[in-house]
Design goal:
The chain is of the alpha+beta class. Helix 1 crosses helix 5 (267-277) and helix 2 runs antiparallel to helix 5. Helices cover 15% and strands 26% of the residues. It has a domain at 55-252: Cyclophilin.
Length: 309
């Protein structure tokens, strides 16, 4: 296995036989591989990372709470601007203005009149960024249609082009982006959207992705569809009120949820990858033997209380 990354070695190890057990007739038979729930239950504490409340947004809708983890490693300027806007109360009282079937839900200032409180309306696009070869990247074992390589970087689904030394986030289900007009630099964060349909990967490197929904994507996906052009609501009465958007770190500890995500460089995650590639559930008759980065939602849980509190 010389020359393989540590994560690739974990993937290979996770694909090896689990072991043997004695059958009812006394013969040795292959032990069934662990299911997804078993893998996650057995994952040691070190295989989980606590999501930083400074990079977590709580969005409150009449239907419930939506939680977004921001991705400053990929869109530092947009993330900083979104937090600035949230702290200025810009999003509070705005609306969900669009819900397009099998595509996205979008929210923001429908009338473009609300003061930003010091936040920017427009920023230079952050579609992609350079990376160093030694930078952590937990690569998927299977080929991708849209990029030379896909995997996870800083816990987010991402793609890479080693020949050009570029990396970018991918438009998987639940990813959050900054809406823009035709000008690449016309976005910035006042208008946001979440992917609620089959991954529109054609948008990769065309819109700045800023994070992903870690709780409440079911709420966004269930919102009434808009019947205007590309899913916009046709009348103000159809819009969904956005009650508030807050940075989790600004709330009292008792009002925060301690979310944890499975580390994508862990042996547990490598086992999850193989479990999803080779489905052994009784229902499955044919295992695909491969997986797309967007078909592998990153496991997130509510972790034990932080003793430091």
């Amino acid at each position: 296995m010389a020359g393989l990354s540590a994560f690739r070695r974990r993937l290979l190890a996770a694909a090896l036989p689990i072991g043997v057990a004695l059958g009812s007739a006394g013969f040795a038979v292959a032990a069934p591989p662990p299911g997804l729930a078993d893998i996650l239950a057995a994952a040691p504490p070190a295989d989980w990372r606590t999501i930083d409340p400074e990079n977590t947004i709580y969005m409150s809708l009449p239907q419930g709470r939506v939680v977004i983890e921001l991705a400053p490693a990929f869109a530092p300027n947009h993330v900083a601007n979104i937090k600035r806007l949230a702290r200025a109360g810009f999003y509070d009282g705005l609306f969900v203005v669009r819900s397009q079937d099998n595509y996205v839900v979008q929210w923001g200032d429908a009338d473009s009149k609300k003061p930003t409180g010091g936040g920017a309306l427009r920023l230079k696009a952050e579609f992609e960024r350079p990376y160093a070869a030694a930078e952590p990247f937990d690569q998927m074992p299977d080929a991708d249609t849209y990029a030379p390589a896909t995997g996870f970087a800083t816990g987010f689904p991402a793609a890479r082009d080693p020949a050009k030394g570029l990396t970018w986030l991918t438009h998987c289900y639940g990813m959050v982006g900054a809406g823009r007009d035709a000008d690449a630099d016309s976005g910035g964060g006042p208008e946001l959207y979440a992917v609620t349909g089959q991954a529109p990967r054609q948008l990769d490197r065309n819109v700045t992705l800023v994070g992903r929904v870690i709780e409440g994507i079911d709420i966004l996906a269930a919102l009434p569809r808009g019947h205007g052009d590309i899913g916009f609501y046709q009348t103000p009465a159809e819009r969904i009120p956005l009650l508030s958007m807050k940075v989790a770190a600004d709330l009292p500890a008792a009002q925060r949820t301690r979310f944890q995500a499975l580390r994508t460089d862990s042996a547990s995650f490598a086992a999850v990858v193989q479990n999803r590639r080779f489905r052994h559930d009784a229902w499955y008759k044919v295992a695909a033997g491969r997986i797309d980065v967007c078909n592998l939602p990153l496991p997130v849980r509510v972790g034990p209380p932080d003793r430091a509190r």
